[in-house]
Amino acid sequence: MQSLECFNLVYLHRDPVDMRKSINGLAMIVLDELELSFETDRLFVFVSRCGKKLKLLYWDKSGFALWYKRLEKQKFCWPRVAAETVLQSSAKQLSQLLQGFDV
């Protein structure tokens, strides 16, 4: 995976998604539901219903890449209080989120 610092825009999809979705299913959420486009500096992050799984989707000039992380004992501290469907975050905040911190 590319370094998180190379992503200027990190989008957290607020609502949980079905983790059976692969690249095509997640890309459709970005395009249809979030109405955003794919650019090389954008990273899209999705969480499972149980809060223990994350998928990260990005475009790297030659195609899509999908990254997956599953926690064994804890849940990710996922923001769900905002009214927006997608929340902008920074690469630093995402790094903290991936380490289990509440951002």
User: What structural class results from the helix and strand content?
Assistant: alpha+beta
Biggest sheet, spatial arrangement of strands: 4-3-2-1-5
Shape: globular
Write down the Rg.
13 Å
Number of strands: 5
Strand content: 25-35%
Order of helices and strands: EHEEEEH
Distance between the termini: 22 Å
Classify the helix fraction into a percent range. 10-25%
Mean pLDDT: 86
Low-confidence stretches: none
Number of helices: 2
Most strands sheet: 5 strands, mixed
Quaternary state of the chains: single chain
Protein architecture, described:
- It is built from two helices and five strands.
- The protein has helices at residues 23-33, 91-98, and strands at 9-13, 42-47, 53-59, 64-70, 86-89.
- A five-stranded mixed beta sheet has the order 4-3-2-1-5.
- The chain starts with 8 loop residues before the first strand and ends in a 5-residue tail after the last helix.
- The mean pLDDT is 86.
List keywords for this structure.
103 residues; alpha+beta; 5-stranded mixed β-sheet; 2 helices; 5 strands
